[in-house]
Amino acid sequence: MINNPSNRSVTLHISACLFLFLFSFILSDYHQLIITRIMILSIFALGYNVLFGYAGLLSLGHALFFACGFYAAGLPIYHLGWEVPFAFLFAIAISAVVATLIGAIALRTHGVAFMIVTLMFSQVAYLTTLHFSDITGGDEGLVLPEHARSFEIIGVQFDLTSPQTRYYIALGLLSVSVLAVYRWVNGGLGREWVAVRENESRTRMLGYNTFLIKLKAMIISGTLSGGAGAAYALMFAYIGSTFASIQYSIDALLYTLLGGAGTVLGPILGSFIMFYLIDFFSEYTTAYLLATGVILILLMLFFPLGVLGTLKKKWFHWIP
Amino acid sequence: MDLGPFLLLASLEGLVQAAVLSLSALGLCLVFGVLRVVNVAHGEFYMLGAVIAWLVSNTLIGHPLSGFLLALLVAPLFVGVIAFLTDRMILHKINHSPEATIVVTIGMLYVIQQSVLIGFGPDARTIEPPFYFHINFPWFGYSGYKLSVILMAAVLLLMVWYVISRTRLGLVMRATQLDREMAQVLGIPVGWVFGLVFASGAMLAALGSILIAPIRQVHYLMGLDPLLMSFIVVIIGGLGSIRGALMAALLIGMSDGIISMFFSPTLAKMFSTLLVALVLIFKPEGLFGQRQS
Known about the structure:
The complex is a heterodimer of chains A (320) and B (293).
Chain A: H1 5-23, H2 29-54, H3 63-80, H4 84-106, H5 111-131, H6 133-136, E1 142-143, E2 150-153, E3 156-159, H7 163-186, H8 188-198, H9 200-205, H10 210-236, E4 238-239, H11 246-259, H12 266-281, H13 288-302, H14 306-314
Antiparallel strand pairs in A: 1-4, 2-3
Helix pairs in contact in A: 1-7, 2-7, 2-10, 2-11, 2-12, 3-4, 3-5, 3-10, 4-10, 8-10, 11-12, 11-14
Chain B: H1 3-35, H2 42-59, H3 64-91, H4 98-120, E1 134-136, E2 141-143, H5 144-166, H6 168-178, H7 180-185, H8 190-212, H9 224-237, H10 242-262, H11 265-282
Antiparallel strand pairs in B: 1-2
């Protein structure tokens, strides 16, 4: 069974999730907190990768979707006193709607123009959060109230102040996202995405509606990113404009490229490597963005496929 | 102040904005037209121009005018050399592939920005204007330097037009833009042309920032705004169309200046971006561009 390529890759993905679960028993508090953050941002990168790695659309504005989920979860809790699970679902729904709208407009452009348009849309979203700072808290942000620190689903109490609980929730969300993305990219939809990525005009000639295929990628990608944003806001009980800035769009791109675009686990690997690199660098210098820049340039020059992409090409062809 | 004079003041501010914007957008447009790549580090070359101008005019003792003129010479040259090296050492290696170039220039953006932060510090600095005089309108006084910015930008734009349409260098550039393989076959050193065009794009951005530096402040984060504005202009004008870019720069610069005066700068930015969305919906090839197959 283990020799069948598709079984092998399923085993790999499940064992990656299992590994993260077992890992939680030996982690110190500090690393547990960091890995919780990494896992949430991995979901963001995972969503980004659907659009960039599979459908071949390079977006420079994914912070928009992250921030969309972020604020759609945080603001109703802060201003209207909503319950956590409800706010989470609401944020995901809003993200899907926004992704559809933005996709419908931005996908009218191709190539370079698409990158610029997404970049600008996300910049407008960022400016909007700053402009309406009496609602959003602007740069200083808002701290979510006490009642949002715990919630109850079917009688089970979840305490969001406990690092342990947060770790398992993040892991659960990540596992669900990994399996969902795995299913999509290995199904018919995934093949359509790759077809559009490799040759859009040929795909269109074969009778596919490429706009619709790309729009689906955009919606799934945006919804995953929004979900990640909502989870981030709810877990750490803070919403602020920084999370809508261009920096976060670039981070998603960086994680994906580093780990390997077009592989399911690549973005997750990429975010782990980047987080610990930054952790390592910040002991020596505050300008970790300099490291970000240098790594981006070196990656494109020498490893355009990323870590997992290079491994896949050289040895493990079965990694999806 | 009445509405009329206020509108005049707002238009003057808009014109200053448009003058500088057209320089930096023209740089971006030139690079896109010939190399078919987007330079995300464009805003950082803009910032670098102003920072070097500050260094030059601050180390030189004497009349601010001499420092300013020297800066106007030294800073674009320095930025041009850096851009040229970037193109030859990095972009050339990745064959100017559009996606890879965007990622690499994002990397450059961080490298330049953070290097300036380390070397220059996080504080905003001011450059002394090269001369002071006020032109007195019946309703308000207006800085003569600002008017001269409009004039200088116009002269620079004319020079660019002359080089592109009336010299051998411009001919080579246009040939490369039309068909780079054919140009190569005819013995044009396409690699060098690419490097030169990339450098001139960066130099145009640097010139724009030096002109506006005495009015605004010099800061290591000042590059982001011109970058986004140039993007907007280049898209509205139609990617790669120089005439379109200039018209769009005038339109966006003026509207930005006027809306900023009447309402708020944030609102002006939102308006420009909304305009881009509308242009893309109804005329994806830009207002003045040709439809691409």
